[in-house]
User: What shape does this take?
Amino acid sequence: MSKSIETPFTIDLDKIRTKAREHITEGAVTQSYTANRETVLKLLNDALATEIVCTLRYRRDHYMAKGIHSESVAAEFLEHANEEQQHADMLAKRIVELGGEPNFAPDELTTHSHSEYARCSVLTDMIRENLVAERIAIDSYRAIIDYVGASDSTTRRVLETILAVEEEHADDLADLLEARS
Assistant: This one.
């Protein structure tokens, strides 16, 4: 068994300090940022639109939920709406950190959102449509995380944090749907 020789860690602080001063107006985006910033900003704005649409759909469903056991389901919808809003806030913050502008234009949200804004009147349909939207978000976030990879570890961590909550939402909704079957 051969032993690999480990190279000691070194860092050229003088070079880092010089580069940091050269492009100070770029904020958090330094020369070591290797992702395509325009693409990442577009993906983040599309995710932002998705989160806002999901927030609005969950809020609507919270108020529109009627029938036996609707109180507990409505409470779940409100909890999810609040968490989706937190996701939107996280995404908007990251967009600004990358030097972009979060797109909150109401007339553009549904065209950029990965999920749809479904209006349902039956509680089971509300649960089902929200579950579909969560599954879409899960696959979308996984694809974006794969794209970003190691080129933007901060964005990747933000997206992974959101993805974990979306998976919880999907699990909650699947349980609710099963309980109504």
Remarks:
- The radius of gyration is 21 Å.
- The chain has one domain: 36-180.
- The domain at 36-180 is CATH 1.20.1260.10 (Ferritin).
- The CA atoms of residues 34 and 164 lie 25 Å apart.
